[in-house]
Amino acid sequence: MSQMTATLNLATGKPASDSKVTQGLLVGLVAASIGALYTVFARWGISHGMDSADMTFLRFGAAGVVTLPVLVFALRRDASGFFARWRSWLTVSLLAGPLFGLLMFTALQWAPASHAAVFPFTAMSVMGTLMSALFLGDRLTLRKIAGIAVVIAGLVLLSGLELRSLAGRALWGDALFIAAGTLWAGFGIVMRRHRLEPLLTTAVISFMALVTYVPIYLATHGLHRLLAVAPTVLLTELVVQGLIAGAGTLYTYSKMVALLGPARAAVFPALAPGIAAFLAWPVLGHVPTGIEATGLLIAVVGLLITVTAGSLTRTR
Length: 316
Known about the structure:
By secondary structure, this protein is mostly helical. The protein has one domain. It has helices at 2-12, 18-47, 52-66, 68-84, 86-96, 98-110, 113-116, 119-136, 142-159, 169-193, 198-220, 224-228, 231-260, 262-265, 272-284, 290-307, 309-315. Helix 2 packs parallel to helix 15 (272-284), helix 3 crosses helix 13 and helix 5 runs antiparallel to helix 10 (169-193).
């Protein structure tokens, strides 16, 4: 009976149990930390001569190789069942694959850092909530709306976003950030709706990128750009973007969706800018201010309001 209940909850997007909420919070913190890590080191790599195509190549090339055994095992276990879901695999690969990486890394080159802390994560939170209500029947409660509003307020305060910066090339970067955030939110919806297993989903997306984007990159860019980068920079980005972010971001977010549902999981990336502000201290020499710390605290409060809503209702 408990297994049947869990399956129904997974399919309908209803609130998870208290234990799942706790697990989801922990996984969410890890996911946000990984998001902060790859954002900071993406800027660091760009400042050392790399670009969005290089970062995307490292991210999915390394992840594709590392997670390949998972895909091989799944095919040996049940190849017919795997290929029966080809539409789902294709959809998640389009939403969370190289296109997402290119949008994010290109936007980082065009828009200021303050915009990177607001637009993609606002899009993830808002679109994740709206799409969850539209496609999964998840209730759009006043508490969720209020929680997301608090999260966005925290992001704006943390970033120091100014209206005068919304001009020129930065607007194109903002549009790319919003597009990337929307794709990522859609990825969570597909994950939940089709009940995809997190680790296998990570392997499929990484493999699809390995056999599509990686050959295109090698044909159009070659390896001479990467080989011209300092070995320390290249190795660092390979570890951070390829191993930690490439596989870790996909898996932790997929796991979060399985535990919490796409609407609540989509709020967690909003913690990444605040964590990034502190990670940027040793990496980029940026000393976090009191306003940034306050913005992170407000975002955390908004996240807790949103994520614990269903749990508090059942307790009452």
